[in-house]
Amino acid sequence: MLSRNFTDSLIEKLIFACGFAAIILVSLIFFFLLREGLGFFAQYNIKEFISGHFWYPTSKPAGFGILPLIMGSLFVTLGAAVIAVPVGVMAAFYISEVAPVAVRDILKSGIELLAAIPSVVIGFIGMVTLVPLVRVIFDIPTGLSAFSGALMLAFMAMPTIVSISEDAIRSVPGTYKEGALALGATKWQTMYRIILPAAAPGILAAVMLGIGRVIGETMAVMMITGNAAAIPDTIFDPVRTMTATIAAEMGETVKGSMHYKGLFAIGLVLFVITFIINFIADSFLNRVKK
Amino acid sequence: MLEEIRIKVENINFFYGLKHALVDLNMDIYKNRVTAMIGPSGCGKSTFIRLINRMNDLVSHTTLKGRILLDGKNIFDPDVDVVELRRKVGMVFQKPNPFPKSIFENLVYGLQIKGVTDKKVLNEKTETALRKAALWEEVKDRLNDSALRLSGGQQQRLCIARCLVVEPEVILFDEPCASLDPISTRKIEDLIVELKKDYTILVVTHNMQQAARISTKTAFFLLGELIEFGNTEDIFTNPKDKRTEDYVSGRFG
Question: Quick check: is B14 in a domain?
């Protein structure tokens, strides 16, 4: 009896320790990011940082304006969302409402497999196939552009969007659908006017999570967006995103220098953005559960 | 009143996969009558009424043989428009299933999908249907409230109103009171009797007293077969088949 109690409490403590360690690790990362990033703002004006047009971290005097990087992330992310959201949501409807059972199973596992492709592979495929194609089709000097990046990232956001939207659509009670059909609604009218509104919070959450993945993506965008830290005029210009900047430059900085701290400050900005997006997505998902 | 046949069921056999759910069904449904389907769970009564508005089309791996004639026309003919059929044959389900929208939106949905946009028509038809469903007085001041805030009984009457607004001719009730309390049940029963004047009504029920109270004709189903079909009074007081007698006297089921 005693030994059973002992085992129980031991396991309980072990689980507690694991959970606690996870929380500690996450908060340590956060505090480290905060310390290095805020240290930067002690020496550099935050307004100039956000709205400055020039990212010249190694020039003298150095310029730490991340507006071009923010614009790069924005162009790529918005572009990816514009492509991935309609396609993804419609694909989710197709899978859950239209496709025959056999097709549904194949598609569902196919899409989940898509999520498993490493981003460097997607970037590589984009570099050798998509980039030359974009250059030729749109007749631009280089195919390494925000557009190519957006297209590739749309692929990466799609599995999340399709899979979670599909769950949301499937969790709409079948009685709604029956009710609508029994009133003489067509399949399309049922989908558009009954199922879509009922599944909307879940679909929105799916979109947010998909976009969250796109914003944080580094490797693929670094390989195909051209990495030019200049404010783009059109979506066919080369851009550089915040994530790509950190990844590309972190290895070359002197630890503790302004440049080093500046990269952490970019990380902090990214963290705030993804935090807001996840927060919005979470609140939508919670609304679904209620 | 002369009895006029509205629906003629001819040699219906229905299978879910290999399961023989309905066996050699033949019966006539009369206009302006309430026809009740009684029988133990799984006897095929719900399956049967879901054939009449072709809701079973949604279920895969089913096989159907035989015909159901609505006004002389086989509803399973390839040239029949299912959407039109379902506008003519309305249905009220076992569990109240209002859409997660306002009361008003629930009612006008059936009209909007038909392309009605005139605000005046929508308002008029909504009021008429709610009055017919004996719900108007209770909800007239809060048509924009969510339908999900209504009580179970009110939700079910809302579903009946939602069905009436499309102006069907036949209404199928699939155990409409199964999830309701006695007072709400009473209201729905009164309503069904009232609606009989204008509609052809089929009611599936587990409750034999209910069948006795509201129906003119009763059909007793057992294991997918129609055991006995006739005037409700005869079925309950003078059944011809031993199995019917056992069921209506409460010996099983």
Answer: yes
From A148's Cα to the closest Cα of chain B, the distance in A is 41
Q: Which residue has the tokens 């490493």?
A: A118
Counting as low any pLDDT under 70, the low residues of chain B are: 1-2, 253
- Give a yes or no: residue B253 inside a domain: no
A2: confidence class by pLDDT, cuts 50, 70, 90: low
Find the closest chain A residue to B53 by CA distance. Answer: A182
**Looking at the domain assignment, is residue B152 inside a domain?**
yes
| Residue A120 near residue A217 (C-beta atoms within 8 A) | no
pLDDT tens per residue across span A95-124: 998 888 889 989 989 998 888 888 889 889
The partner residue sitting opposite A194, judged by closest CB among B90, B99, B159, is B99
State the burial class of residue A19 (Cβ atoms within 10 Å of its Cβ: 0-12, 13-18, 19+).
exposed
Q: Name the domain count of chain B.
A: 1
Determine, yes or no, domain membership for B90: yes
Structure tokens at A232: 């783009």
pLDDT tens-digit series, residues B162-181: 999 999 999 999 999 988 88
ipTM: 0.88
Question: Domain of B237: which CATH number?
Answer: 3.40.50.300
N residues, chain A:
290
Residues 151-180 of B with CB under 8 A from A: 159, 162-163, 166
Residue of B nearest to A197 (CA): B100
pLDDT at A289: 55
State how far the Cα of A144 lies from the Cα of A156, in Å rounded to an integer: 18
Q: How far apart are the first and last CA of chain A?
A: 42
* B97 interface with A at CB cutoff 8 Å: yes
State which residues form the domain around B17.
Answer: 5-248
Residues of B in contact with A178 (CB under 8 A): 55, 58, 93, 97
